[in-house]
Amino acid sequence: MINRIVLAGGSGYLGRVLADYYKDKAHDIVILSRKAHAPQGNVRYLVWDGRTYGAWTEALEGCDLLVNLSGKNVNCRYTEQNRREILSSRVEPTKALGEAIKTLKNPPKMWMQAASATIYRHAEDRYQDEETGELGSGFSVDVCRTWESVFWEQETPGTIKVVLRIGLVLGRSDGVFPRLKNLVRFGLGGHQGTGLQYISWIHEQDFARVTEWVFEHGKDGDILNCVSPQASRNKEFMRLIRNSYGIGIGLPAPQWLLEIGAVIIGTETELILKSRWVYPGRLLERGFRFSFPEPGEAVREVLGCRL
Questions:
Q1: What is the pLDDT of residue 262?
Q2: pTM listed for this prediction
């Protein structure tokens, strides 16, 4: 049983997934949030601004696990202002946590940093693992590089530090999956772009299980790919959703149409068109076993029609 887990920036989707997972596995779950919320069972909230020292620091004293989930949603247009906010919303909380930990007599046993699998290059030729994966280029990758670099720069000798490079998390309530589901429901669930780009994903239950496994088995300095071992091409992934819904066809969206749609709805086509073929080599080598290793079963479970 974990005594205390602190989820920095934990009021979003992934924070809710972890809070629900650990509610019976931890005595005390503390969520650092920019807004006040009423406590729910053993889940309580402390207000922080993600930048400055405050009363929230007390929650880190003697805690078992700190998970940093802070960061502005990247589902937006990459304007100059949004670029600044995407970067600062990741870098500033990481620095604030590092500075806070330095003041503690009993720092967290482990600091788990949620990062992104998009740090790797566009890959359709081979998967990218922790040993041989090649980092990409461009704004998103630059953010990932800086984010991880700032994390490793924090001097916290009494705390084990681990980076999780997380793929697309599949869940019913939030994230990308409900949006893909709605495309299918309205007949728009064909492939996007060429449909050959890979999606590296992980079921939300496995995401939560990975954090628990890493807490028990992780090593200081670990960088771990937090994705299922079976990436799926976009066209196959959309077909799985359609089949699970009993919908035979879906209109495809070529790149030119996606470019127009992205402007209208305020997002970037990179989120859909970049091929993220990422492999969890270290997790598998060390014995982690996924509950949902293949996409069909994961999609059916999320849709509530697991066979």
A1: 66
A2: 0.94
For residue 175, give the nearest of 263, 239, 271 by alpha carbon. 271
Q: Which residue has the tokens 């880190």?
A: 60
- Written as six digits, the tokens of 71 are 């960061």
Q: Which long-range contacts (CB under 8 A, 24 or more apart) does 72-81 make?
A: 73/12, 74/140, 74/268, 74/271, 75/267, 75/271, 76/266, 76/267, 76/268, 77/262, 77/263, 77/266, 77/267, 77/268, 78/139, 78/268
Q: Which of 170, 304, 165 is nearest to 237 (CA)?
A: 170
- By CB atoms closer than 10 A (0-12, 13-18, 19+), residue 188 is middle
pLDDT recorded at residue 87: 96
Please choose, from the candidates 112, 83, 57, 77, the residue with its C-alpha nearest in 3D space to the C-alpha of residue 223.
112
Task: Tell me the one-letter amino acid at 52.
Answer: T
Low-confidence ranges of the chain (pLDDT < 70): 261-262, 264-265, 305-307
- Alpha carbon distance 32, 41 (integer Å): 16
CA dihedral of residues 18, 67, 37, 170 (deg, nearest 10): -40
How many Cβ atoms from other residues are within 10 Å of residue 64's Cβ?
17
Give the whole-angstrom CA distance, residue 209 versus residue 171: 14
